[in-house]
Amino acid sequence: MTTPLTLDAFRADLAEQLHQDPHEVDLAENPLDAGLDSLRLHTLAERWRAAGADVTFLDLAEGTSFEAWWRLVAPHDGAEDGPARD
């Protein structure tokens, strides 16, 4: 069983790809404006899928902010129909 992705782990994953400290990651920022390229998007999608998130490269490419990404990959308790999509 995989450990659900936490917001802290999400920030740490982003920070690693952005070469920043996790506290420096601005969740309101556009991922492409922040400097993430397609290879890094693939890397993150694979990592988060391994953690149990139902997310694809295309989902991330269409996301307009890191906050939107978090809504896609955040663990859900099943009470909703699914994660919010941008």
TrEMBL record:
Gene3D superfamilies: ACP-like (1.10.1200.10). Pfam families: PP-binding. It comes from the Bacteria. Signal peptide: none annotated. Residues 10-68 form the Carrier domain. This is Phosphopantetheine attachment domain protein.
